[in-house]
Prior knowledge:
Blueprint: E1 2-4, H1 15-19, E2 25-27, E3 32-34, H2 44-48, E4 54-56, H3 66-76
Antiparallel strand pairs: 1-4, 2-3
Organism: Paenibacillus glucanolyticus
Protein name: Ferredoxin
Domain 4Fe-4S ferredoxin-type: 30-59
Amino acid sequence: MYVIGSACIEEKAGECVDVCPVDCIEEGDDQFYIDTDICISCGACEAACPVAAIFYFEDLPEEEKHYFDKAVEYYKNK
């Protein structure tokens, strides 16, 4: 699964949404979020992101790990 990190905050370029084959990316107030229950880990979003904000979960830097929890909370509270 993929996670969108801090580089997306306030940037919100949106190319990731256009390339996602399963429509698992939504725009939140301050960034885009990937629904980890729907993501098929195809990597299309990571390649399309112009600010390198998207990471495969296992490659997510330690200081960015809380963005996974932030995405889970976003979809839980919808």
